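Q: Fold this one first, please.
A: Sequence and structure below.
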Amino acid sequence: MTPVKILSVDDEQDLELLLTQYFRRKIRKGEYEFYFAHNGLEALTTLLKVKDIDIILSDINMPEMDGLTLLTKVNEMSNPALKCIMVSAYGDMGNIRQAMNNGAFDFATKPIDLDDLSVTIEKAIEQINYIKQSQKEHSQLESLKTDLAVAAEIQQAILPRVFPPFPENDDVLDLAALMTPAKDVGGDFYDFFRIDDDHIGLVMADVSGKGIPAAIFMAVSRTLIRTIGLQGYTCDVAMNKANELLCGESVGAMFVTVFYAIYNIRTGQLDYCNAGHNSPYILRANGNVEMMPMSTNCIIGIVEGISYESSTLQLGAGDTLVMYTDGVNEAFNTELEEYGEPRMEQALREVNGRTCREVIDGLLADVRRFTNGAEQSDDITIMAIKRKA
């Protein structure tokens, strides 16, 4: 137990003996630790030497530097956990009132009633402990904020951020993506990677939950799916393997919805497996906007031993595939109305034919207009790929 450090400041020598005798049990037990000074200047010197004084018990009328001046100097230290108890004659109420107005915690009158002083010190200790606990919690919160900021930077860094990602294929391929977490860190992620000269893997996923647990599970999921995908497995086999591995890693019944696709940049063929994720949209070159079929596969990471099925679709020249997480269609405005698929489809019609970046920016801008300043309730992630030729 750390002792409460009390600095007694009084030019009367007898007070030192009186205090040490009255509080002898607490001193022996290590509960109190007393320091003594005989004027304000000596007190300031002691405060410089002993950094963690908790309570100052100061007389008001002293030579060289009086108690009111000392109180002013203590206030300049801006330490809310340092409490001053002022002492003066009973008739000196003017100075006592001034001391209280200047921030003294409490006062005592001479001759000092040591029983009453003991209660006053205990009250001061309660206040000090409360302030110190608050300061500790504040420091922990600031540390957590710093850690979250670093985690957010790390999370963004592990997502592909270089666009265009495949400049050698710019003549046939356009691709863009973004992720905007609802909190400092999120559970959504997108990914894309080259499997071979003709094929690239595409991932759009949403981990259950929010915050740090979701962010950690997101990093694990992204790494596993990418590692499996780079080995060239078909979409269904890749999801089977990812599910088995993530079931072993899942804590607290966390899971992830995934849309995983392998795109042939030469032919425009898209093989895909939708594991419980939102159905992407296809923006056709003729102006039509089509939602892909709903997923019939289970989410990943919660049920072992199940099988996933894949499907195939064809992108024609000028067609764009838009993948997203439910932070888009389930965005709410200040009236608690949901953005919904009809609004999303209309927004996509308005940006059809544009570059992938313009499609994403246009859709996000429409969501922002709808929410009209309402707090973002979920991560928003969008990725678009367009067959240019």
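Q: Good. Now the second chain.
A: Here it is, same layout.
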Amino acid sequence: MLHLCPITRLRDQLGMYVDLVAHDHDRVLITKNGTELAGLVPARELELLDNAASRSMDYKAYQVAQELMRWRIVREGLEEGR
């Protein structure tokens, strides 16, 4: 379950919200003046998010390497044709 929580309430009831996240696996969206600032998620979800971000960066590096390899092949082909 997602709980919206103004930062002032979070400051006063932090322990309660940490328990909701840790034990009930809920999420807390922290707001200030109606603007979304941050969130509290269970540690396991944070680990999953970090792993997903890492895999995404690895894939992006792979894509860049592939593109560089294509350009290298094209350049070598052009140099051979001279």
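Q: Anything worth noting on the second one?
A: The radius of gyration is 23 Å.
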